[in-house]
């Protein structure tokens, strides 16, 4: 009997569920899609497993492992569907959530015009416990167990079954939080509990409290979802032992399903993280280390930065209105997906998004009862996408889209073509602004980067993005609609550990820092061993957050492997000066009045997996006409109107082929419109490299 040899990556999006299967014996990659099922995402997941195995002619017994990118936690937070939560904190700190931070979001002149969003826990569900630790973890006042019992019973009697616990300075000493958890387990055994010393062991009380409460809020739903899928997979595969089932984390790694139910907050940006990693690998393979990734789906577009082949990370992220300090790939999301709705403001201006028609009812052209014009409707009316999706599996009702678009155009006093191109122009600028937000605001010049577009709708506006942003060019991977699912097959197991240990650099004791790193590395090693990785395969990345004394935020820099002595500490401080200058344009190197301060120490434990190889393709004869399937009237400009565009089937193109706009390149899960004045070239891996024709000539 052939042992299990098929690994599957599944990314559940708002409209479609993307599936990629990797045969470990042959190296073959197989891709497909299936409609998402928002009411029960697990249904779409299992349907995707069945579909790709049917394509391979395999049964459930061939499954070796499954990796999954999920938006369950993300959607719950974005939609504000947070059930009643209880918050337990240190006596005297009951208003930490109400006070929050003094910063006011962009777009508001000052706090007079900004109304704080509702707190994740209302004030009447916040309870405090006596007991106090100082910043070193030393006990100043003993833990008040009698009050702890009273609070646990109070929540139990009112049916509040989800609780977050965050005590002052518990990052330095978790003892009081652990005792509180023991009391809750005894007095309120039904409660789902998150404690901050497990979720985020670093200082800043508001962010640590919020991160802990978000973890608690998503824990019931994520746990139920992951367990449901795990049970269905094991049943389908007919296994006596649990099948390896991994869930994508926001930090660019995966975690076993058994572990992720205890750390659900780590999955809040799992889908976008997988896409950024998959695109980074493909771009690096094609010779591009400085890349911007643009993942366009049905409901939103996610943009991230890849430097030296690796996506950048942040601990200053947020999901909706909820800040989160867990490590996550730095992603900016805008409501500019294929299902984003076009609408008219009270002032009579055309707007696009962030509302989305989603998968059900979806755009007008889906024929499912949708009533609002979307970006997809504009594309199909202009001829930029075919009158069907997924190679003909999903027919589109072009006339329904045209009727809705004509009605909207009449309201605006425009022609249907001008209205449709206006919708797409607004969407392109929305995407461009997201790109600028993640580059210019971080001291990066967008003109130094190549853009990698993927996702079902990610490549539809790439020519306008080249114009608007002045990009070098755009790389479109093969099967761009499945890059996120492919990314799931390239991801190592990764666990992050952090400890706040604030010390002035001049007073630093390298041996004490090394001891903390060793402790964190021991935790990482234990976790990797528990997930089946032998010690010889363990890999560790060490970093430290440094700042100048008096600053409120830190800069993360790498810490070399090996024993941390005085020379290594000096090298880390030097790297901090360099990174600070790159980010902010200045540093205080050599200025004795500006002390450097170490704040957080971090270790990432990594368990490597086998990645699919990206094979080179045989060169063609240089004549792309073999791939031409039709000529279609396409509108690229509202004033010019429709022009004849050559239509090509991407699977029949070969390395060395060059196509000039106006043309349309179609494939199973995506379409690439090449505007007049642009050129697309196929590289040796089957990627499309799109640039202006003038740049090709130069």
Shape: globular
State the separation between the terminal residues, measured CA to CA.
58 Å
- Total E-strand runs: 37
Please work out how many helical segments DSSP would assign: 17
Q: Biggest β-sheet, characterized?
A: 9 strands, mixed
Based on helices, strands and strand pairing, what is the structural class?
alpha+beta
Average pLDDT number: 89
Helix content: 25-40%
Give the strand content: 25-35%
Low-confidence stretches at least 5 residues in length (pLDDT < 50)?
Answer: none
- Spatial extent as radius of gyration: 26 Å
What do these coordinates show?
With 698 residues, the protein is α+β, with helices and mostly antiparallel strands. It is 31% helix and 27% strand. It is built from 17 helices and 37 strands. The strands form 10 sheets. Strands 13, 14, 15, 20, 25, 26, 33, 36 and 37 form a 9-stranded mixed beta sheet that branches. Helix 4 (145-157) crosses helix 5 (175-187), helix 10 (375-381) packs across helix 12 and helix 12 packs across helix 13 (462-469). The longest helix is centred in the N-terminal third of the chain and has 33 residues, at 205-237. It is globular, with a radius of gyration of 26 Å.
